[in-house]
C-alpha cells in the first residue's frame, strides 16, 4: 500500500510499516520523500528547490 505524499508540508520522519525502522532525511534534504523517493516532494516539484521547509 502506498502512503499519500503531503502537498503542503514536509514529512521529517517515516516509520516503515513492515520493519518499523524510522527514516529521517539525509543531510541536505528537506524531507524523507526527497531522501528516499524517486522524485522530489510535491512542494519542490511545484515551486522549486528551497520551497520545502528548510529547503
Automatic annotation (TrEMBL):
It comes from the Bacteria. NCBIfam families: GDCCVxC (NF041374). InterPro entries: GDCCVxC. This is GDCCVxC domain-containing (Seleno)protein.
